[in-house]
């Protein structure tokens, strides 16, 4: 069986510009996300130490669910947009950390939409600064994901 080539990621992401609220337009969600979640969004805030505070929110059956965590560069000496995200499960009892990869696979010049994945290619998120994305941009991101074997 042939091994897949490692996915290319964006280089030189300006984390300050990346901060703020992002809306999930589409995803192959992780096992920790509710299957019937709606209006899912992530809010990123840069901490003084260079780490990122992560707030993921979704609404399921009319109720808000959320989890908070942190993100940090996988390799601070590299300019690739490969981050690690860490959440504690369950969130109300911060004992067991769950760490995952957050790779920025595509990002427009204006930081308005992004394609996020991870090395296993099992999870994918298409994010936008607005709650709706133009179909043409969405289709371009889907094709980029397919081109990376997702």
TrEMBL record:
Q: Name one GO cellular component term.
A: cytoplasm
The record's SUPFAM superfamilies line, in alphabetical order, gives: Lipocalins (SSF50814)
Name the protein family. Belongs to the calycin superfamily. Lipocalin family.
Which InterPro entries does the entry mention? Calycin, Lipocalin_ApoD, Lipocalin_bac, Lipocalin_Blc-like_dom, Lipocalin_CS, Lipocln_cytosolic_FA-bd_dom
Q: Give the superkingdom in one word.
A: Eukaryota
Where are the coiled-coil regions? none
Its GO biological process annotations read: lipid metabolic process; response to reactive oxygen species
Residues forming the Lipocalin/cytosolic fatty-acid binding domain are 13-149
Specify the species.
Salix udensis
This protein's name: Lipocalin/cytosolic fatty-acid binding domain-containing protein
């Amino acid at each position: 069986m042939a091994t897949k080539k490692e996915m290319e990621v964006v280089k030189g992401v300006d984390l300050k510009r990346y901060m703020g609220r992002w809306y999930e337009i589409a995803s192959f969600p992780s096992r920790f996300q509710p299957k019937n979640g709606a209006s899912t969004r992530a809010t990123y805030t840069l901490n003084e130490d260079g780490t990122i505070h992560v707030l993921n929110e979704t609404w399921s059956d009319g109720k808000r669910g959320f989890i908070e965590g942190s993100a940090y560069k996988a390799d601070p000496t590299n300019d690739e947009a490969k981050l690690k995200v860490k959440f504690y499960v369950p969130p109300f009892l911060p004992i067991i950390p769950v760490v995952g990869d957050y790779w920025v696979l595509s990002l427009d010049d204006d930081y308005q939409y992004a394609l996020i994945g991870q090395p296993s290619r099992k999870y994918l998120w298409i994010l936008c600064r607005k709650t709706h994305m133009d179909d043409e941009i969405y289709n371009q991101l889907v094709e980029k994901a397919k081109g990376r074997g997702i």
